[in-house]
Design a protein that fits this description.
single chain, mainly alpha, f41 fragment of flagellin, N-terminal domain, 2 domains, two-stranded antiparallel ribbon, 6 helices, 75% helix, rod-shaped
Length: 273
């Protein structure tokens, strides 16, 4: 009877010790990873929530990257438009100068040559305003969509603003300053083109501001989701450390108790001899 009782006690203490040892392992793992949930068995429902949040956070990261690329493209467009404005202004100055009736044939020819060079420079500037294989200033360019959210249909549209010399009517086949009469027509055409470029700059600026606003929204949602994820999966390091100390004390006591229980039958048998 003594042996049976001792075996039962030994089994009970052993089970308790095994449970405490497992708890120590789980607690140590939480402390080392900093995570409350390290496997599905830790918190199945919490793991599902954490997984959804992690997916959203990854989506926000990609949305931010897409928005940044859209802003980079708009910056290139803005630089191209500003360059175009400066070139057209220089062309207008030459057109004004060419209206002077005291110019010699050679002087007028030189002005026309400089004017033609600026026309080519304008075309190069507009055609060179490309990024990621896209040029929204070119003739025939299509609007593009930027995926700026984490769900289908959440996108921002960047509108093309045709600023080509042919569309604005400032190409070599449309204007020149070879005569005073042509210079008058050219000045009117350049004034109209400059007005168009100014409106195009306003469109680009508005689109950039819209992306900036969208980026702010995505940043806020990303931060909020990240904070929520932390509350779901992060371990309370202070509580876990305190718990680990308690478990180690319990483990030590269980080992001592098991040693005493295992020694008891031997002691009792020695008394019976």
């Amino acid at each position: 009877m003594l042996t049976i009782a001792s075996n039962v006690q030994s089994l009970m203490v052993t089970n308790y010790l095994n449970n405490v040892t497992k708890d120590i392992g789980d607690t140590t793992n939480r402390i080392s990873t900093g995570k409350r949930i390290n496997s599905a068995s830790d918190d199945p429902a919490g793991l599902q929530i954490a997984t959804r949040m992690q997916t959203s956070i990854q989506g926000y990261g990609m949305a931010k990257q897409n928005i940044s690329q859209g802003q980079a493209l708009l910056n290139v467009m803005d630089a191209g438009l500003q360059g175009g404005v400066e070139i057209l202004q220089n062309m207008r100055q030459l057109a004004l100068e060419s209206k002077n009736d005291t110019l010699s044939t050679e002087q007028r020819s030189n002005l026309q040559e400089s004017f033609s060079a600026l026309q080519k420079q304008y075309e190069q500037t507009i055609n060179g305003s490309e990024l990621f294989g896209k040029n929204l200033l070119a003739n025939g360019a299509d609007d593009i969509n930027i995926q700026s959210g984490i769900n289908a249909g959440q996108y921002s549209t960047l509108s093309a603003v045709d600023s080509s010399s042919t569309t604005l009517g400032v190409d070599a086949g449309s204007i020149d300053i070879s005569t005073i009469a042509n210079s008058d027509t050219t000045i009117e055409a350049l004034d109209s083109a400059l007005e168009t470029l100014s409106m195009n700059q306003a469109v680009v600026g508005a689109q950039y501001n819209a992306l900036e606003s969208r980026m702010s929204v995505v940043d806020t949602m990303n931060e909020n989701t990240t904070d929520a994820l932390s509350r779901v999966e992060d371990a309370d390091m202070a509580a876990e450390t305190s718990k680990l100390q308690l478990l180690r004390a319990q483990q030590q006591m269980a080992m001592q108790a098991l040693s005493l229980v295992n020694q008891a039958p031997t002691s009792l048998l020695s008394l019976l001899r």
